[in-house]
Amino acid sequence: MAPGEDNPWDYTVSSSERRGRRTLGAGLPVSTSTTPVPGRNENFAVDVAPGQTPVDAPCGDPHPAIAEPPPPVADEKGRLDKVVFGISAALALAFVAWGFLAPSNLGSASGSALTWIESNLGWLFVLLASAFVVFVLWLAVSRYGRIPLGRDDEAPEFRTVSWVAMMFSAGMGIGLMFYGVSEPLSHYVSPPPRTVGAETPEAVQTAMATTLFHWTLHPWAIYAVVGLAIAYGTFRRGRRQLISSAFAPLFGERRTEGPAGKLIDVLAIFATLFGSAASLGLGALQIGSGMEILGWAGDVGNGVLVAIIAVLTAAFVASAVSGVAKGIQWLSNINMVLAVVLAVFVFVVGPTVFILNLLPTAIGSYFADLAEMAARTEAVGGDATAAWLRGWTVFYWAWWISWTPFVGVFIARISRGRTIRQFVSGVLLVPSVVTLVWFVIFGGAGIAAQRDGVDVAGQATAEGQLFGVLGQFPLATVMTVVVMALVAIFFVSGADAASIVMGSLSEGGTLAPSRRTVVFWGAVMGAVAAVMLLVGGDEALTGLQNLTIIAALPFALVMVGLAVALAKDVRSDPMMLRHTVAAEAVEQAVVEGITRHGDDFVLVVEPAPDTAGNGVGDTGAARTPVAAVRRRTENRGRGVADVGSPVPGDRSD
């Protein structure tokens, strides 16, 4: 008997019989099982029968709830986007020329722009950083956390150890080496305004809490927003690996490929260029400091720093053209081993007991002060707080935002096959724990030395304070060489990822950009790093910070749009559509069963009689029309296929 014929055992719930229950679509016929249930006085079984027309749309597209993700466009060989590459390259080369020909003029212009940003928009960086933490945690713990970044059955592309090592090396590397000792020590001898006294027991807590605030959950949440948006769009939706493509849920595919989309990709390239160049500058400063300590060079000036950048730029270009699997993965694994060796050495020969005591103190202080630190602005501290924020919190948030295009795209590239929950757990929690341990070991060693009368903070620059701490231990020379090797490899691996990402953005999102494009962006990145150091003059670090904040502002607004687009995208994911339909159908079945039979019923899904297709779970031809199902899924005021009818002989009818 076909659905819709006069079948006494088919039952369609009318609108009046639904008693106001929320449903998804008009009632549809169902069949019932006649299989008796032992031990029951009344038998109740439900079968959801298919509709009379195929679920495939007229064009042949499958229903969105069962559609397989298309092959990622990024897997295809890309062609140079002349508009994106041309505009980005022209502006970058103009900046380099300006910096080399008139560094003081560029420094003055950037200083004026920075003053305006800090005076009017510092609050924006503070607010967005915390908002991104809440957003990615919500995605992870919500039902959307089960969504895979790829096909439903796709396995992760990289082993977990290599996955963590690669994203950690690309996302933090040089910064950990540069600030591992200097930031906790700086906050200890000069705490944030309106907090605690300098070099007091309370200052130890404040120093560690502030450092962890800048380096753990917040920066990795910023990375995760971009990484998730790109990974989901590329591997789940088959879009191009472009920042602009992630805006498709908001603007549509055609507009994201138009002028607005190209502008977004140009902004992403510029943020990547300046953020990664700032890191290269930090690495050059620290290597130069190590050369001074080892006696390999005298007073390291800008000429030596530019030479260091040139040598390492050549190294990371060579690594970049070898590809992710050969280059970055190999370098990242080496760096992870060297970093562990260095950390264990400092922990064992340094103030071991003090470091162990500092670990729980740092964790407790961080969570105790988190809300206050996240809300700190110049509104309550005046000029002193504004100056402190400019050098620390606002700079960090801008730095992380400027890194997000390349770190986000890179971790998206290596996260194929993982679920959203796994992605957030790996990207947010694992690096945060490693960062916590790193800063407790190195920051604790620096603070302990300062408390014991060794003026590490006063005798060395920020880039040299790590070497100052190592100088208190045995094998100081050997460890200094290890640090320089670590910084150099972090330099190469981070810049390696950045040059590949900029090449990808220049070639339509391909995962394998051409060598010429990668080499071009690698060379330009090194040149921009040199310019940023020259603009800072004697205060090279200030020049790096100022230009980073300026370059990050436009992309901060882009990130807001990315978060909104991602939230909209996951709501219509095939897995979520199936979950919605299944939950509504089962809920209605249970309600109908209880209404008609109390708690004495069972639900059975089985082939419906005299139909071309099968019941729930079947992917045959005879199903509800795709247009109708879409309306039922999206308009929650309509009904879904009905449930529940008595089996023959049921005494309740």
Automatic annotation (TrEMBL):
Question: Where located?
Answer: Cell membrane
Read off the PROSITE patterns from this record: BCCT
Q: How does it sit in the membrane?
A: Multi-pass membrane protein
**Can you quote a single GO CC term?**
plasma membrane
- Similarity comment text for this entry: Belongs to the BCCT transporter (TC 2.A.15) family.
What keyword terms does UniProt attach to this protein? Cell membrane, Membrane, Transmembrane, Transmembrane helix, Transport
State the superkingdom.
Answer: Bacteria
Q: Could you state a single Gene Ontology molecular function term? A: transmembrane transporter activity
Write the protein's name.
Choline/carnitine/betaine transport
Q: Where are the transmembrane segments?
A: 83-101, 121-141, 161-181, 217-235, 263-284, 304-325, 337-359, 394-414, 426-449, 469-497, 518-535, 547-567
